[in-house]
Protein 1
Amino acid sequence: MRIPVIILSGFLGSGKTTLLLSILKESTERGLHPGVVMNELGKRDVDGYILQEHTGARVEKLLDGCVCCSRKEELAGALVQLLKRSPDAIYIELTGVANPEEIIRTLEAAPLREQVMLHSAITVLDAENALEYNSRFSADKQLVRTLHKQLTAAHLIVVNKSDLVEPDTLWRIEKIVRKHNNEAELVFTHYSEINLTPLLAGILPRNRSAASPQRAYQTFKSGALRKTSHEEGAVAVKEPQEEPAASYSQVTAITLTFPPGKGWSLTKEQLEQFFAEWDGSLLRAKGHVRLPQEDAVQLVQYAGLRTLWEDSRYPGQPYVVFIGMNLNEALLTERWSALFT
Ligand SMILES: Nc1nc2c(ncn2[C@@H]2O[C@H](COP(=O)(O)OP(=O)(O)OP(=O)(O)O)[C@@H](O)[C@H]2O)c(=O)[nH]1
């Protein structure tokens, strides 16, 4: 029996991990034991730690590059290892700059095609920023192409962060999405909250499964069931197959650490000010920091020009991962060091 795979893609900070968290919680309630693969552009595993902290899930981490291009060969190996543990399903969260079509191809090729099947490809969009992507990233043609691929490959498109925009923006996003993909189910969400019943339909604990898992047909919003045009068990791969191109050219991830003995020395305001200084090039920042005004370690998330703080139990040394377009590493490191002098 082939193991169903759910792929989560979508630009940096759109809400993929938020969605994966709720899929994992629902899976636990259903008695499922999924395998989770998390790919991060940076060297630190921020999202994997969040998942482990909130759900106890064991997460396979592929760090420091993108498994759709620069680290493509690592994904198949990681999945083969994971399959040895006989998971009921596999959930793969991609980096924000990954092309999901390449992942689908990997699933379709040896050695995986006999063992796994694509259950659903989901793309999450950040409603507050999605309309700006084409103009903001026009200098990185590969990235613009990748963002289009994220739309065309999806069976389900989750337009998230709808709390941050006016209804008119949602209509404009729907119009653009439909130019790229007229068949995917489209839902507007707050904190990636979707109806998980249709998504997980057909995924059963392996010792109870009577039939092969079915493709997740769409009932994410009310209305009649609507099939995708892909045949059952087939994938959204477009012919002819091309060589995998890099999915971006100007995005880099840089990890900043705190000098020894200075782990508690930055305030929230200083960090937020630091993010703001880089907002022309900074796309995403996330990390675990200690603040003089908080007892608990703080998970800091900068996404779409907003900074969010949450208590965390992260036990390690503080750090912040910066992901941006054409980030000048030397200058970034120099300014970071200056904060501690
Ligand atoms: N206001 C608002 N914030 C949200 C919503 N969904 C997620 N967030 C916040 O946005 C930030 C990024 O969410 P994630 O789920 O980590 O996004 P992601 O796509 O996994 O991010 P990367 O993996 O780094 O690309 C977090 O601080 C979330 O709490 C939403 O619907 N509204």
Protein 2
Amino acid sequence: MPTNELVLKREQAHFDDAWLAREATRATLSDAGSASGGPRKVAAAVKNAADERLQRLGGSDDAVAFGRVDVGDDVLYIGNHAITNDDFDLLVVNWQAPAARPYFEATFANPLGATLRRTFQCERNTIQGFDDVVFEDLARRVAQLDASAEEVWGINDALLSDLEAGRSGEMREIVQTIHHAQYALIRSEMDQLLVIQGGPGTGKTAVALHRVSWLLYNHAPDLLPQDVMVVGPSDTFTRYIRSVLPGLGDDNVVYRDLRSLGPQKSTGRNEGTSIRRLKGELRMASLLHTALWQRVRVPDRMKTLQVGSGFSAVSFSREEIEAELPNHVGKGSYTVGRASFRNFLQREVEARNPRGPGATAPVLDAAVERVWPSLSAVAFLRDLFGSRDRLLAAAGDRFTGTEIGRLFRQASDKVADEQWSDVDVALLDEAEELLNGRPSARYRHIVVDEAQDLSPMQLRSIRRRSESGSMTVVGDLAQSTGPWARESWDDITTILASDLPAQLEQLELGYRVPRQVYEFAAQLLPYIAPGLKPPTVVRDGPADPELVEVDEFDVAGPALAAARSHAGSGRFVGLICPDRHRRRLEEELVAHDVKWANVGSGNLDSSINVARPSESKGLEFDAVVVVDPEAIVGESDWGLRHLYVALTRTTKYLTVLHTGVALPLPTEQASDALIELAEVRGLEQAALFDAPPPARVTERTPRDPSAESSRPNARAASRTGSTSTSSLNVVIAKRAAEALAADLREAVAPHLWEAVISELREELGLGDS
Ligand SMILES: Nc1ncnc2c1ncn2[C@@H]1O[C@H](COP(=O)(O)OP(=O)(O)OP(=O)(O)O)[C@@H](O)[C@H]1O
């Protein structure tokens, strides 16, 4: 048996050979452009090809390999990029190659012929150490019930030490330590809708991005980086993840965030939950469709449509135009129809006045415009939302008067001045398709991250950019918040569905959050996602959560002190603060001249990063300070889920500053109500704002019976839709009353409360009864 030292020496010799071979290739490729000679075009093409190949070599400081797997007599070194020598011997296999499979997939239960898996720790190309998994040895040890994390879960020391490493504002690649369960998802068929559910820190984002790299390698040259789009919830998030793929040698993948997925970006218009919910509903698609085609009409007072003037003018009677329009309506996009109608007019003018000069383009356009106005998506939507009449005419009986009232808004004087909210973007995108057809930029594969929060209209926006429906969609229902918070993936898969198969998979190991922290956070799980299994945490953290009680009127000071203390130890810190304390916290930061990054404005680069709970989704830090959990819970309908998100952002340390209760679990009564709410939310979310029509209640999909049994305080199994709805109304009423009461307490002196309530009744038209 060779000593460790000898093994290391041999391995280093292989690394050195591979390094020389790689650098020789680099030198050849670098010279390729100038050496190729011949016409300039040819030389340029050769140089481009060489540059592309160079990109896939990695840097000269990078270690040539990160692992090795022995299968029978074959010894394979695995690295980010393949390396061959002059004799075409394969010195290193790239991780995406099928040959590398046993390195990732060999487990104790199924070693796939592998006898050894070795993981290297390197400084540049110098091996510092290595960890071995000897599969036969494992079998023996497991038989002796001496199982380690490696045997039980396939978690090796390299992975654990990777998880311990400090974090920054950029996500990193995890190629060396991809877990076999993750690898199976990474390499699964491209032609499917793959939905991956997993708890916080189970590696969903990492898997989705590494899957892109794997697909690009294995489907080249049919699949190019520019054929792949990655959609994230916000600019901050896409910035956070966008270094992973270039790190794997895959540049030019397209990144978009939902606020810009349309012909016009969000300009930050603020809208309440009910309107955001409404604008995300599928009904909006038909409203826009009807409203747009209603713009094609013969104006009420128009008797004839005259094309041109003077002796060459040609007149069309109202009846004639009315009879003609249907020939052009609805047969393609609005713009195509308009062009077809314009052609008709042109032909008719020439036919009816053969000796005339024909209609010039401006003359024709002016005539068409009267009947079939040319529109942009922004102009159309501004006109629609700015007119109650237009809204009513398009809505038919699909929207209530209250809903029309919600959609209506005062239009800006100029189209360019109109302000657009995040949820308007998907409507503008829908309008754009109606106007001009599907976007020409379509993708062969789309990754959607944090998909659990998307509205149906946003999902349609994504779907229309997909060539075939091939997608990887990742998220966590327990972290689903916002107006489209949901309890199941059903509607998402339905809207994204195509002819391709759809598959729902789970990731079950929690890598990010250490055990002590997750055990604390997981107490929320029965209330926020009773049907979901908590992830199995793979490691212990360095410390228990630090729960610190602070004075409710002085939260900002201690919050800053806690963040500074973590930062002082060189940690990348997330300071997650509810709105209630945000202003004070910012004042405190300024007063102490502390450098900090505002996560909400897309920054994530300082050692102290301040985020609202909702903004912290998908991110991670070495240490997290969660400020006032009770306020977090109280500030939104999804407060418990926001708290769960906030508590699970840390890779190591958690400090919770509370004003009495560190983990505000609902009381038994309230938890019953929450469970009730959770059951109907997602299927009948509209009921939160309007009494739903009975038909929608009966449309509910059956609940997962296994989920029912695991609910705390689960009540008698069968509840009819109407019982749920009426209970839900009680819940809604109670929560609304609590929120109003809290506002009242804060804003108005107690002796005025009666008077305010009576004014409120008046305001709502409830009279004195
Ligand atoms: N196999 C692995 N090897 C090393 N690190 C890993 C592995 N899998 C996941 N990680 C790390 O765990 C952390 C969490 O991963 P990721 O952000 O992808 O999780 P997530 O499921 O998307 O989390 P969330 O739901 O909270 O957004 C990241 O730091 C990631 O690099």
